[in-house]
Specification:
Elements: E1 12-15, E2 25-31, E3 36-42, H1 48-66, E4 72-77, H2 88-101, E5 104-109, H3 119-131, H4 140-148, E6 157-163, H5 177-183, E7 187-189, E8 197-200
Parallel strand pairs: 1-4, 3-6, 4-5
Antiparallel strand pairs: 1-2, 2-3, 5-8, 7-8
Helix pairs in contact: 1-2
Length: about 210
């Protein structure tokens, strides 16, 4: 972990694979510095709210203890899906997460068509896929336990949990929400491809 006020040297990558069983949606966080993963297996809709709740759960259960004193979080995410760069709910939920945790959250999206280069794909989900190959995924319990049993010779460890919360699909975020976050300084876009690279700041009195 880098000193307070700096970006962490090992930051989670996030993505969601397409494997499903009886409406199950694995969404994962991979901590590059510690070679460990967290996977929430959702049973409702695969939404931005579910994605951010997974990141929040990882932070509360593992991340904050693994990176004591951290003030910043760097997320490398795919360009589409529940954590896509066009997804307004994703940005709004991350802004709320930044305020709840006090973390400054920077997001860098992989450009469209390049998700196969996301670190989480070949360091986490590729091994999960190999681990459950040939296993009949007959229940959510089997899915969670199989994911959590994934290890590698290089020391990968994975925690997994079933998320039975409800995440309604089709939530509409008005056109004013994102511009308002930008106006208040909560959402700042980077100079280079600001649509793919941006930072969410905690909502503090100084920003109002």
């Amino acid at each position: 972990m880098a000193p307070e006020g700096a970006s962490p040297s090992g930051s989670p990558s996030t993505t969601s694979p397409t494997t499903t069983w009886a409406r199950s949606h694995p969404y994962g966080v991979y901590d590059v510095a510690h070679n460990c993963g967290w996977v929430s297996v959702g049973t409702d809709h695969d939404t931005a709210a579910f994605a951010v709740h997974t990141i929040d759960t990882w932070w509360q259960r593992i991340g904050s203890a693994a990176h004591p004193g951290a003030t910043r979080l760097l997320i490398c995410a795919d360009g589409g899906g529940s954590n896509g760069y066009r997804n307004r709910l994703w940005k709004k939920e991350l802004a709320d997460l930044a305020t709840r945790t006090g973390l400054t959250i920077t997001v860098t999206h992989l450009p469209p068509g390049t998700s196969k280069w996301n670190t989480i794909e070949h360091r986490l989900f590729a091994h999960i896929s190999m681990n459950w190959r040939g296993w009949p995924l007959t229940s959510h319990e089997v899915i969670v336990n199989t994911i959590a049993a994934t290890t590698t010779s290089t020391g990968l460890s994975v925690d997994a949990e079933l998320d039975t919360n409800t995440y309604p699909a089709g939530i509409k975020i008005s056109d004013q929400v994102i511009p308002n976050l930008e106006h208040r300084g909560i959402l700042t876009r980077h100079t280079f491809h600001g649509e793919w690279n941006y930072t969410l700041h905690p909502d503090t009195p100084d920003l109002n």
